[in-house]
Amino acid sequence: MLRGIKARTITMQTEKKTAIVTGGGSGLGFAIAKAFTQNGITTIIAGRDQAKLIKAQEQLGPLCIFKVLDVTDYKAIPAFVEEVESKHGPIDILVNNAGINQKKEFTEVSDIEFTNMLNTNVTAVFVLSREVAKKMLTRKKGSILNISSMAAQYGLPKVIAYTASKTAIEGMTRAMAVELSPMGIRVNAIAPGFIYSDMTAKALDSDPDRKARVMARTPMGHMGQPEDIGAAALYLSGEDARYITGVVLPVDGGNSISY
User: Fold this and answer.
1) Do you know which CDD domains this protein is assigned to (predicted)?
2) Number of structural domains the chain divides into
3) I need a labelling partner for 172 at 20 to 30 A (CA). Which of 15, 99, 142, 183 fits?
4) Burial annotation 124-152 (CB, 10 A radius, 16+ → b, else e)
């Protein structure tokens, strides 16, 4: 160890914290909420499907609370943030996970489809982040985590609107970090690679050529698990990442840097 430099130990989660995870009722959002609740973080999962949210809450236990929210109902967001803070305390962590996707030929994507993608995946993230940041700024601390995609790392066919939205998310992450970090709010993003789910497995198993290309381009040779995203979110949102901001972290088994 260099003289004058103190060894740093891994921080255990002891301080009570509250997090919001949009789209937390299933998929990667559920995995993130699971990582949070298992580490003592009170986690509000938000989404449109109440039945899905109730099922998720039952699995996640008493530290999970569900709130029905359509993130594209921008006028409802300030009241949602106020309700969370009044009932569950200061929001320490915001994870902007909710989003939609569409696979369609470029020339067949309509104006409305493109706009709807941006409304859900970009504008909703901006509005919710803005309202939560207002609260965090009064305390001069907080963590905002956005979910990007491999679609923002390299070109993928038939997902033009989704690609545009996730590329915007990465730019917003950096801009937000530069503006908010001097006031104690860290802003980062995760760019998941090919993560296992029933839907992903079905899609790849039905297209052997695509599955072969995916595996050939992934140096680690297999898909990731939702828990890998949960672990990355827990780290980036926690005290051990206190000097990390403006980062887009690929969790992809090396897919984005492979030839």
Assistant:
1) SDR_c
2) 1
3) 15
4) bbebbbebbbebbeeeeebbbbbbbbbbb
**Nearest in space to 53 (alpha carbons), one of 77, 27, 84:** 27
237 located within any domain? yes
Of the candidates 74, 154, 162, 259, the residue annotated as catalytic is: 162
Q: Give the amino acid at 27.
A: G
Q: Which domain holds residue 59?
A: 17-195+225-250
Tens-digit pLDDT profile for residues 216-246: 999 999 999 999 999 999 999 999 999 999 9
Taking 3-state DSSP, the helix, strand and coil percentages for the chain, each rounded to the nearest 5, stand at 50, 15, 30
Contact 168, 122 (CB under 8 A): yes
In the annotation, is 243 catalytic? no
88-144, pLDDT tens digit by residue?
A: 999 999 999 999 999 999 999 999 999 999 999 999 999 999 999 999 999 999 999
CA–CA dist 221, 253 (Å, integer): 8
In a domain, 28, yes or no: yes
What confidence tens digit (pLDDT) does each residue in 169-199 have?
999 999 999 999 999 999 999 999 999 987 6
Does residue 162 lie in a domain region?
A: yes
Considering the domain boundaries, does residue 12 fall inside one?
A: no
